Amino acid sequence: TNILQDMITSRISLFCLFFLSISSPAQSQQCGALTSRDVEGPFFVANAGLDYAIAPANEINDNTQGVILMGQVLDRNCNGIGGATVEVWYAAGREVEYKFRPDKLWYRGKAQTNQDGFYQFLGTFPGSYPGRPIPHYHYKVTSPGRNGRSLTTQVYFRDRIPRGYENYVQTRGTQFAGVRDVGAGGGLQNGGKIVTFNVKMDVN
After folding, report:
1. Which residues are 21's β-sheet partners?
2. How confident is the model at residue 7 (pLDDT cuts 50, 70, 90)?
3. Those residues with Cβ within 8 angstroms of residue 173's Cβ, 6 or more apart along the chain or in another chain
4. In this predicted structure, which of 4-18, 78-92, 125-139 has the lowest mean pLDDT?
5. How far apart are CA 189 and CA 88, in angstroms?
6. Cα distances (angstroms) measured from residue 66 to each of 9, 55, 61, 192
7. Are the beta carbons of 135 and 128 closer than 8 angstroms?
8. Is 103 exposed, middle or buried (0-12, 13-18, 19+ CB in 10 A)?
9. How many C-beta atoms lie closer than 10 Å to residue 18's C-beta?
10. CA atoms within 13 Å, Cβ hemisphere of 133
11. S-S: 71 plus which of 33, 41, 57, 197, CB 3.0-4.6 Å?
């Protein structure tokens, strides 16, 4: 656990710097359409306690499961929103399930974006289950302040759309994440995937 925490501390700033380095002013003016909304579903749990490592260490350290889940929260003018709250939850684990109290709330995270709107979690790739055979993350993003606005959506993967869901995702182009493999030492002890999902909100 201490080794994992040390790894987290040393690398979170490096990944934020990486994304800052590739986010030029020209790119920031072309950040795409507003992120579309999606249903919250019945499995949301408020005030999940995990703010960074949101899956068991043995799963994070398995290169077939481990994921750095990261991105940027943007306003309608493509500026990063600092202090936004990002909540994520998903089904995973050996039996692919959501966790609820009194069990430890694995696969659920809640964190605030940094001053440039970046967020990051260390978790695993979502599974699928009979009632919902499409792998997905759930997101709820809330802009800062007393009158903060919330956007609830879900995140999908272009190469993991099961038969029968093609029409369902046809109009959800803003809800697809980017995925790339990363080797050992790239933020995950034994390698895994970096999943990137930016959220553009209809706020100033």
Report:
1. none
2. very low
3. 33
4. 4-18
5. 22
6. 17, 9, 6, 5
7. yes
8. exposed
9. 14
10. 7
11. 197
Count CB atoms within 10 A of the CB of residue 97. Answer: 15
Which residue type does 86 have?
Answer: V
Residue 18 tokens, joined: 């990486």
CA distance 81 to 199: 10
Intra-chain end-to-end CA distance of the chain, in Å: 40
Q: What is the CA radius of gyration of the chain?
A: 16
57 contacts: CB under 8 Å, gap ≥ 6: 1, 4
- Residue 151 to residue 28: CA distance in whole angstroms: 20
Cβ neighbour number for residue 71 with a 10 Å cutoff: 23
Q: Please tell me the distance from the alpha carbon of residue 113 to that of residue 73, in angstroms, as a whole number.
A: 8
Average pLDDT estimate for 190-204: 97
What is the pTM assigned to this prediction? Answer: 0.87
Q: Where are the alpha helices (DSSP H) in the chain?
A: 2-22, 25-28, 57-60
| pLDDT exceeds 60 at position 170 | yes
Token pair of 203, please?
């706020």
